[in-house]
Automatic annotation (TrEMBL):
Lineage: Bacteria, Bacillati, Bacillota, Bacilli, Bacillales
InterPro entries linked: 3-OHacyl-CoA_DH, 3-OHacyl-CoA_DH_CS, 3-OHacyl-CoA_DH_NAD-bd, 3HC_DH_C, 6-PGluconate_DH-like_C_sf, 6PGD_dom2, NAD(P)-bd_dom_sf
One Pfam family matching this protein: 3HCDH_N
Protein name: 3-hydroxybutyryl-CoA dehydrogenase
Single GO MF annotation: oxidoreductase activity, acting on the CH-OH group of donors, NAD or NADP as acceptor
Pathway: Lipid metabolism; butanoate metabolism
Residues that coordinate or bind NAD(+): G10, A11, G12, Q13, M14, G15, D33, E92, K97, S119, N143, K274
Length: 283
């Protein structure tokens, strides 16, 4: 199956990165969000990222312009009517995702694959909202998308081999490394990463060490590129909490219980880098 045009739903941190890597690989991209200001913000993030690549001499000004010219913007979901793949990177909320997939199922061409960038929600349940569950798949990118090599590909219960192969080939075309996993809460990436972050928050909550000390231990002691609390701020504390809740509910095991301090921060609106404050403060 030849994939030429993709729609990316959600122009936030993940969606804009996903749109950028597809346009850089020569595909036509429709970047969609609810409001034009969200789409504009996504376009401006991509423009800044590409400008940095030009300054570093990795791409020419003409490359930058041609990459950007492959991206069109949308606030109307009917623009999915001529795409080969939709990649949904909207908010992590099951009701929103199932409603979106049911609508996309009506709009997208019969051959189109409906992929989701969900970080932990069940692909099988999202697929069940459509009449094409064999064409629904998880395509989980890591943040920052232009830099991180992994794409975790998650098969739902009904995902066909053909669709899996098409998404694997697409990931390779983006110069990413696809890794196949099955549909269980948190898949592999967040089943392992989030309990580590949650445990780091417990060490602060219990007064074992300061956030700076926890991060320094993991950076210098384990060679992690950033400490777990910096990473949590970078991912978004609301997202971290949502993933822990998905793990806790999905496995029913208290080892996944979200730390009360994480809940408190989210309730306070301290969501990390995006809100200006989390475990650290940001300009
Ligand atoms: N967008 C695009 N490029 C970015 C970027 C961004 N937001 N942030 C950094 N970069 C680029 C920089 O431009 C730089 O590129 P060059 O090498 O081409 O110059 C490169 O990344 C390295 O950046 P820096 O030198 O400024 O900083 P660094 O060495 O600390 O690297 C990092 C930054 C790559 C983010 C690194 O700190 C890192 O690997 N952190 C961990 C990231 C991680 O764990 N991501 C997974 C999060 S979990 C997730 O995404 C899934 C989920 O479901 C929650």
């Amino acid at each position: 199956m030849e994939i030429k045009k993709v729609m990316v739903i959600g122009a936030g941190q993940m969606g804009s990165g996903i749109a950028q890597v597809h346009a850089m690989a020569g595909l036509d991209v429709v970047l969609h969000d609810l409001k034009s200001e969200f789409v504009e913000r996504g376009m401006s993030t991509m423009t800044k990222n590409l400008l940095r690549q030009v300054e570093k001499g990795r791409i020419s000004e003409a490359d930058k312009e041609s990459i950007l010219s492959r991206i069109s913007t949308s606030t109307d979901l009917t623009n999915a009517s001529d795409v080969d793949v939709v990649i949904e990177a909207a908010v992590e909320n099951m009701d929103i995702k199932t409603a979106l997939f049911a609508e996309l199922d009506q709009i997208a061409p019969a051959h189109a694959i409906l992929a989701t960038n969900t970080s932990s929600l069940p692909i099988t349940e999202i697929a069940a909202a459509t009449k094409r569950p064999e064409q629904v798949i998880g395509m989980h990118f890591m943040n920052p998308v232009p830099v991180m090599k992994l794409v975790e590909i998650i098969r739902g219960l009904a995902t066909s081999e053909k669709v899996y192969q098409a998404i694997k080939d697409l990931s390779l075309k983006l110069e990413k490394t696809p890794v196949e996993v099955n549909d269980f809460p948190g898949f592999v990436s967040n089943r392992i990463l989030m309990p580590m972050i949650n445990e780091a928050i417990y060490t602060v909550f219990e007064g074992v060490a300061s956030p700076e000390a926890v991060d320094e231990v993991m950076k210098l002691g384990m060679n992690h590129p950033m400490g777990p609390l910096t990473l949590a701020d970078f991912i978004g504390l609301d997202t971290c909490l949502y993933i822990m809740e998905t793990l806790h509910e999905g496995f029913g095991d208290d080892k996944y219980r979200p730390c009360p301090l994480l809940r408190k921060y989210v309730k306070a609106g301290w969501l990390g880098k995006k809100s200006g404050r989390g475990f650290y403060t940001y300009e």
